[in-house]
Specification:
The chain is mainly alpha-helical and 112 residues long. The protein contains 5 helices and 3 strands; from the N terminus they run H-H-E-H-E-H-E-H. It has helices at 4-10, 18-26, 44-53, 70-79, 88-101; strands spanning 33-35, 59-61, 84-86. The chain has a 3-stranded parallel beta sheet with strand order 1-2-3. The chain starts with a helix and ends in an 11-residue tail after the last helix.
Length: 112
Amino acid sequence: MTVSCVCVVLFPHVEGSPTHSRECLNYSSTIETVDAGWCKEITDQGATQIAKSSKSLRYLGLMRCDKVNEETVERLVLQYPHIVFSTVMQDCKRTLERAYQMGWSPNTSTAS
C-alpha cells in the first residue's frame, strides 16, 4: 500500500513508509477532503485504504494517480456512495449526467 504522498502532505511529521501511512490514516477520522492528485505513488490498495479509513471523507481527488485503475475507482464509487471520487473519467461522467438532466441531448445527425 502506498499512501505516503497523502500522509506527507496531511501529516508532514509522519514518515512515508506504509506502516506510518496506516498510522496516519488511523488519525484521519475527521478529514472530509483529500486531494491526492498527481501523486504517482498512490495505488489501488492505497486509494481503497484512504476511502475506508475515514468515515467523514466526502471527496477523494485521484486525478493523474496513474497507478489507480478506473475499475478500482468504479468499485469504490459503488462501495462508498457518500464520497465523490475525482478522476478524469468520473468527472466527465458527472458532467455528462448534469448535461442530460438539464435537457441536453447529443446531436445525432450526420454532417455532410
